[in-house]
Design brief:
The protein is of the alpha+beta class and about 90 residues long. It has one domain. It contains 2 helices and 2 strands. It has a two-stranded antiparallel sheet. Strand 1 and strand 2 form a beta hairpin. It is flat. About 0% of the residues are buried.
Length: about 90
């Protein structure tokens, strides 16, 4: 899969990177980050620095990823168990 080169602005910061994701997926990721950053900024009433807000945002996204991975593992384990039962009954 070829990697595209992107020059974008995220949260007011110009970033340049290569990634195999298509532009729509990159834009969705940017919208997610910017939306969550705005929510966090509102919750803090503008009293936290950008670094703290970004750290809280990163931790929230990391937690979401970990929870999604756990759910995926659980689903995969259930599927494997079902397939074993099917194979045993054949």
């Amino acid at each position: 899969m070829s990697q595209e080169h992107y020059n974008l602005t995220v949260l007011g910061t110009a970033v340049s990177f290569r990634h195999s994701a298509d532009l729509e997926r990159v834009r969705e990721a940017i919208a997610l980050v910017e939306g969550r950053f705005a929510d966090q900024k509102l919750r803090s009433h503008g009293m936290q620095s950008k670094d703290i807000l970004l750290t809280v945002l990163a931790l929230g996204l990391a937690d979401d990823l970990l929870q999604s991975q756990k759910k995926l593992d659980d689903v995969q384990n259930r599927i494997e168990a079902m397939l074993s039962k099917i194979e045993e009954s054949v």
